[in-house]
């Protein structure tokens, strides 16, 4: 399942088994701030959050955006996956 950017709702979405996991953000210039990640309880423990984070961050990289991870999940994902640390806004 692909991660889709929904600009109208300011979030990335991943639909799995009829449920939608989301990573909400705000965008200011070339800086994207992840504010909240939500995975429905039905999808818990299946790696959906990590798949969502990876897809969102890959999209951010392709758009040449910098990241501020206010969401604890996205922050932890970046800390665990060194290949995304260069995206952090300083």
Description:
The protein has 90 residues and is of the alpha+beta class. Helices cover 27% and strands 34% of the residues. The chain has one domain (4-87): 3-Layer(aba) Sandwich (Aminopeptidase). A five-stranded mixed sheet has the order 1-2-3-4-5. A hairpin with a 2-residue loop joins strand 2 (11-16) and strand 3 (19-28). The termini are far apart.
Outline the secondary-structure elements:
Blueprint: E1 4-6, E2 11-16, E3 19-28, E4 31-38, H1 48-62, E5 66-69, H2 72-80
Parallel strand pairs: 4-5
Antiparallel strand pairs: 1-2, 2-3, 3-4
Organism: Variibacter gotjawalensis
Domain N-acetyltransferase: 4-89
InterPro entries: Acyl_CoA_acyltransferase, Gcn5-rel_NAT, GNAT_YJDJ
Strand content is 25-35%
Model regions low in confidence, pLDDT < 50 over at least 5 residues:
none
Q: Kindly identify the CATH topology.
A: Aminopeptidase
In round numbers, the mean pLDDT is 97
For this structure, what is the CATH homologous superfamily?
A: Gcn5-related N-acetyltransferase (GNAT)
Gyration radius from CA atoms, angstroms: 12 Å
The helix count comes to: 2
Strand order of the largest sheet: 1-2-3-4-5
**Helix fraction bin:** 25-40%
Q: How many beta-strand elements?
A: 5
**Assigned CATH architecture:** 3-Layer(aba) Sandwich
CATH class: Alpha Beta
Structural class: alpha+beta
Q: Distance between termini?
A: 32 Å
Count of spatially separate domains: 1
Sheet bearing the most strands, described?
5 strands, mixed
Compact overview of the structure:
By secondary structure, the protein is α+β, with helices and mostly antiparallel strands.
């Amino acid at each position: 399942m692909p991660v889709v950017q929904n600009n109208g709702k300011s979030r990335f979405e991943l639909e799995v088994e009829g449920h939608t996991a989301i990573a909400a953000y705000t965008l200011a210039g070339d800086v994207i701030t992840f504010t909240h990640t939500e995975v429905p309880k039905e999808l818990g423990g299946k790696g959906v959050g990590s798949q969502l984070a990876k897809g969102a961050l890959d999209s951010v990289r392709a758009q040449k955006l910098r990241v501020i991870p206010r969401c604890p999940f996205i922050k932890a994902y970046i800390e665990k996956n060194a290949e995304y640390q260069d995206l952090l806004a300083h």
